[in-house]
Design goal:
The protein has 192 residues and is of the alpha/beta class. The protein has helices spanning 3-10, 19-27, 43-52, 71-81, 91-99, 113-126, 139-148, 162-171, 181-185, and strands at residues 12-16, 32-35, 38-39, 56-60, 64-65, 85-88, 103-109, 130-134, 152-156, 175-178. Helix 8 links the parallel strand 9 (152-156) and strand 10.
């Protein structure tokens, strides 16, 4: 799957934290869903439902209850749950996903200069191609990252306005993930 293409065409990604938000994301125009919580007993059904609605779905590996946080869990998710990919803050999980042919997004929290340097080192060392920067309202940092480590950057966290989305997209990010359903509804506004 060409993630960059899907994210660039989407611009807005529906980030969902509960079943009610998931149901609304299914009926939204957003083609991509990030599932930010869940449990082993229900996640397969959620993935199947997303696919039945022609949605691309990524599971936040670190937030799905009931799975061990190891390579076997990554392999199980790929073979049995079959999402389009996973999201993780752990570079080891990203490498396991890559090893097993599962698409991934490396989620990075930018809280200070040390976290910025750590992210740069991991992106370079592991040659990570798909990165979500948190919080999403830091387009200046995205511009620097794009220059230092070109990759497919998604911005997420604290994104609440159309102006923020436009500024983020103009900084070089290919998409924004947000739980703000008003932005989901205005999805097509960003795809001109």
């Amino acid at each position: 799957m060409n993630l960059k293409k899907y994210f660039q065409e989407s611009k807005i990604i529906a980030a969902v934290k509960d079943e009610a938000a998931f149901k609304r994301a299914l009926t939204s125009k957003c083609p991509v869903i990030f599932l930010l919580s869940g449990e082993i007993l229900t996640v397969k059904k959620i993935v199947e439902e997303a696919h039945a609605h022609d949605k691309i779905i990524f599971l936040h590996f670190d937030m799905i209850d009931g799975f061990g946080k190891d390579e076997a869990a990554v392999r199980y998710i790929k073979e049995k749950i079959r999402p389009d990919g996973i999201i993780s803050i752990k570079s080891s999980v990203i490498k396991w996903a890559e090893t097993h042919g599962l698409d991934y997004i490396y989620r990075v929290f930018m809280i200070d200069s040390q976290s910025f340097e750590s992210a740069l080192n991991n992106i370079r060392r592991f040659k990570i191609e798909n990165i979500e920067i948190m919080p999403g309202i830091i387009p200046d940092v995205i511009e620097v990252l794009m220059k230092e480590c070109p990759a497919n950057y998604i911005s997420g966290g604290l994104i609440t306005t159309e102006e923020q989305v436009l500024e983020i997209l103009n900084s070089g990010a290919i998409a924004c993930s947000t739980s703000n359903e008003i932005l989901w509804k205005n999805y097509q506004k960003f795809n001109k």
